[in-house]
Amino acid sequence: MNVFKKYIDIKYLVVAFALFIAISADLNAKSTFSAERIKQYCENYIKANFENIQSIDFLIKFSEIQFDEDGVDAKINILQNQNSSIQKVQLIFSKNDQYLKIIEIPFRLHQIRNVYIAQRDIYPKEAISPNDFIISQYETTVSPDIITNSEQLHKKIAKRTIRKGEILKQSDLESQKIISRGKQVQIEVISGGIKVRTSGTSLDDAGIGEEVRVRRDSDYSKMTVTGKVNDEGIVQIILK
Question: Which one of 114, 132, 168, 214 has the lowest number of neighbouring Cβ atoms within 10 Å?
Fold first, then answer.
């Protein structure tokens, strides 16, 4: 009888201990995202969204992220910046559609891509012609400054000396000045399907696609307007 009672006592003790462990685990439940797990998650997402990737340079050190709650989800997206070689991955940690933490991870990409390489030394104010460059595949950082399309070279001149073998960049070029300060220009005002042309005097030098100030000749007040130069050298003002 005593042996049986002792067995029952031990059995209840084991059950009670197991229940205590379960309750303690629930009270201390956490969601943990290791540094390696976060890095791998980011790498996989970037590789799925960009082509010809050679390497990824993350610009911060990854660290473990831990939450007191269990069941925390992580979502990821890319914050693209068209004006910089540095891009960002955004990680959003949430539970039941409630944001718990948002972090941004900056990175640079190295890709194999077609670039334009100078075939000769090109000096300031010299026009860029098709004979001045070759197109070649090259490993570079992903940067909006690097020329990747021949349209970006249309009617461009060098701003500085570009040495043979250099990759052509937009920051090294500028538009040819087809409008000179003090010269008469045509002004075209566009509103919907209506176009009105007049004339004026340019107050700046300007190239295709650049903005220029023009003093209208037809106004008694000689009003100054600002428009953008098109391929024909006409200053266009588009009214919205």
Answer: 114
